[in-house]
Write a structure and sequence with these properties.
Length: about 325
């Protein structure tokens, strides 16, 4: 297998790091999501750099990028587009919405109503949009990078479970350290602190990278390891609904993505462990008595990883023969 994915990962990470300080783990998740054909949700308080990160990442990927500022009065048609009757031609014409793009930045996605949020469901899962019974294919590649304000903030609507399940990863930016904060002030505190991001790849290269990552080898024992983790979520105390089959497939894809950015053509158990929390935690439906506990879903996945036996064999055991 070629190492195109690894080299591309390095170029994207170096490019985004020009404007984002100390968030390598988030950049890794975003790049893995791109390589897996998935979508990513970033949840954190305002001002932590969520939108700046997504804009820098989108600028690094050639092709077309669109941004939607989600608000309570936004309608599904504002996302997908509309068909209208042209009086001059006597025919219906389609005006594409901002979802017809390669990278869609859905800013503050949970400020829109559930009805509007549902406008993205078909787009994210099937890479298409149906408007007035007519189905239109979205560009290839298509990736949604959404930002979300914490539920405790005013004027937000919790994302439906079906919508959360369509995001490959959910993560947060977290506040920077004192050292990182000083670097941010030195880099962006002056008028000349704005840095222009140029593309490092083209959108036409991404489908081949996705195919490359999909071909990464996974040993049957590691398939069993993923299955055990997912099965354990369905019977864990405090969990009302565990991870779905779609979540299990997502974990497998994410593990391949982490193998790719580590320049390997086979999956290692650590790839699964690293992907587990950002890939699975947001898919858990907790019982009401546990929903108020902060990051309790992530703790459940962490505890499960400690209880499930990890396959232990020599490296060659996982390599493609």
């Amino acid at each position: 297998m070629s190492n195109n994915a690894f080299l591309t990962y390095q170029k994207i990470k170096n490019n985004v790091s020009k404007v984002i300080v100390g968030k390598d783990d988030v950049i890794d998740l975003m790049t893995v999501s791109l390589f897996c054909g998935g979508h990513m949700l970033i949840c954190d308080v305002p001002g932590t750099g969520k939108t700046m990160l997504t804009k820098a990442f989108a600028a690094s990927i050639g092709g077309k990028a669109s941004r939607i500022q989600f608000t309570p009065d936004l309608l599904p048609g504002d996302i997908t587009g509309v068909r209208y009757f042209n009086m001059k031609t006597g025919e219906f014409e389609f005006v594409p919405g901002p979802c017809f793009t390669n990278i869609l930045l859905a800013d503050e996605i949970n400020r829109a109503t559930p009805k509007t949020q549902s406008g993205l469901l078909e787009c994210m899962e099937e890479k298409q949009a149906t408007i007035d019974t007519v189905t239109y294919a979205l560009p290839d590649p298509f990736m949604v990078i959404a930002t979300e304000n914490p539920i405790e903030n005013m004027g937000v609507f919790p994302l439906p479970e079906a919508q959360l399940d369509r995001f490959l990863f959910k993560t947060s930016m977290q506040y920077p350290t004192a050292e990182e904060n000083a670097k941010i002030l030195m880099r962006f505190g002056g008028e000349s602190g704005k840095i222009r991001i140029e593309p490092v790849i083209t959108a036409s290269e991404i489908p081949s990278l996705i195919n490359e990552v999909a071909s990464i080898y996974v040993h049957p024992d590691l398939i069993g390891y993923i299955t055990s983790i997912v099965e354990r979520t369905r019977s864990w105390e405090g969990v009302s609904l565990g991870v779905s089959p779609r979540g299990a497939i997502a974990l497998l894809k994410a593990a391949k993505g982490f193998a790719a950015i580590n320049n390997r053509d086979y999956v290692w158990p650590d790839d699964i462990k690293k992907a587990a929390i950002p890939c699975l935690a947001h898919r858990l439906i907790l019982k009401s008595s546990h929903r108020v506990k902060k990051d309790y879903d992530a703790k459940i996945i962490e505890d499960i990883l400690h209880t499930v036996s990890v396959p232990t064999e020599p490296d060659i055991f996982y390599a493609k023969r």
